[in-house]
Amino acid sequence: MLPLNATVELDLAQKALATRAMLEIAQVDAGHVAEEIALIRSFYEADAEPAQIPFDSLLAASSQAAPLTADSFPEPDQRDLVISSCLMVAYADGQFSQAERAAALAIASRIGMPAERFEALDNIIQDHLLSQLAGLPDAESVAKVGAELAQPAS
Questions:
Q1: Alpha-carbon distances of 65 from 29, 39, 101, rounded to whole Å
Q2: Rg, Å, the chain Cα set
């Protein structure tokens, strides 16, 4: 189960910042950037509001780090949502590289999340991803994927 409270809300500015944070992660490794950006776009444009900044504007600005501070997401549940989303983007291509880990940890630090909470969320995300594979008949393959999730790629 993901550690996300279903009632967590982000205002338009926070949603834009969370999207920028996810775009930072997507662009760390060159592998599957287009697919990850499409995933992030669908998150951002779901239930889009007229006053919302266009996604393409956020994408154009994504070559620079998002202006994140500890005040950006004052509630712990909001920080959990942002970092969990960043971690899901990092794992989306099946490899959570050291560079992605460093970038996600830096984002967590910028928004005031303790490293211990980041590690806890990472473990929860790994458990969630493994639970998605639990119904597969080949337990050996599931165990192999679990070992790969636990070891960040170089």
A1: 15, 19, 16
A2: 15
